[in-house]
Amino acid sequence: MKLKVLLRLIGVVQLILGAFYLFLPLQFLSMQGLSTPGADNAYPLGMLAARFLAYGIGMLVIARDPEKHLFWINNMILIQAVDLAVGIFYTAIGTVALAHSGFPMFNATLFIILLTLWRPKATANA
After folding, report:
1. Which of 88, 106, 109, 125 is most exposed, with the fewest beta carbons within 10 Å of its own?
2. CA 75 to CA 80: how far, in whole Å?
3. Among candidate residues 120, 101, 119, 121, the one with its CA nearest the CA of residue 109
4. 30-45 pLDDT per residue, tens
5. Whole-structure pTM value
């Protein structure tokens, strides 16, 4: 039950990020305290939005029967691990302030830990 709730929460977070990057990409960066790139960067941010939206919908589907979707749960752990590593790197070199990266890095860490602890156990194919 707790894994299903977590997967739904992650799905909603992905959908919210997707909506912001699709409909307000440059404004969303500014709201986060990040520098606003040129207007032409809205195009790749819109493509990024598609991935957030697809994974958000996917997490909601996966939440119905997590045991059948270990591969996708592990992929979300990978996504969160990369997110965390990128956050640590750009914060450590001073490109992004901890005030801007701290919350996303906390979320990534929390999602990595909980998904790892609560994911279904892999079954051996006979």
Report:
1. 125
2. 9
3. 101
4. 999 999 999 999 999 9
5. 0.92
